[in-house]
Amino acid sequence: MRIKYRIWDNENKCYFEPTYKAYAGKLSELLMSPSGDLSLRTIDGMTHCDSVMPDRFVIEQFIGHQDAYSTDIYVGDKLQVNNSIVYEIVFLLEDEYEEKIASFGLKSTKGTFAIDHFAIENGRVIGNIHEDQDGEVR
Fold it and tell me: Which of 38, 94, 111, 117 could bridge to 49 as Cys pair (CB 3.0-4.6 Å)?
């Protein structure tokens, strides 16, 4: 499995897409350090995101699974199982869950649970914490 991320841009209300058009004066890409810190590189130089714009970007990790329709699932996605229950994909930490665990989980109004392969295999990504299933920003 390859570790992948997507990054939500709170300023532009969309997922960040790099621009590689330096010849036209347009360059923007995000670089992630091994510790997870982001830096934004533009035509004007490099900016350390956490110190200059601490709430602009949200990093969301791929959980290593796809839904029933072969869509990659990321932390922050909304997963509907059997056209019924909707779960948010979350990262579980020991203090948020009854067991000693650091893993991905399913969160609903009924509680938070460890990833369930039935839910993943029978679920469908219908949006995420930023956008609904039609791509409209919340």
Answer: 38
Q: What percent of the chain clears pLDDT 90, i.e. is strictly above it?
A: 47
Give the CATH number, domain containing residue 72: 2.30.30.290
Both tokens of 43, joined, read 């035509």
Residues of the domain holding 112: 62-128
Assign 3-state DSSP to the chain and report helix, strand, coil percentages, each to 5: 10, 50, 40
C-beta separation of 75 from 89 below 8 A: yes
Kindly list the distances between the CA atom of residue 118 and the CA atoms of 33, 88, 97, in Å, as whole numbers in the listed order.
Answer: 35, 15, 20
What is the CA angle 26-32-37, rounded to 5? 115
Q: Which long-range contacts (CB under 8 A, 24 or more apart) does 17-22 make?
A: none
Contact 91, 105 (CB under 8 A): yes
Residue 24 has pLDDT above 80, yes or no: yes
Give yes or no for residue 13 having a pLDDT over 70.
yes
Q: Pinpoint the alpha helices (H) of the chain.
A: 49-52, 117-122
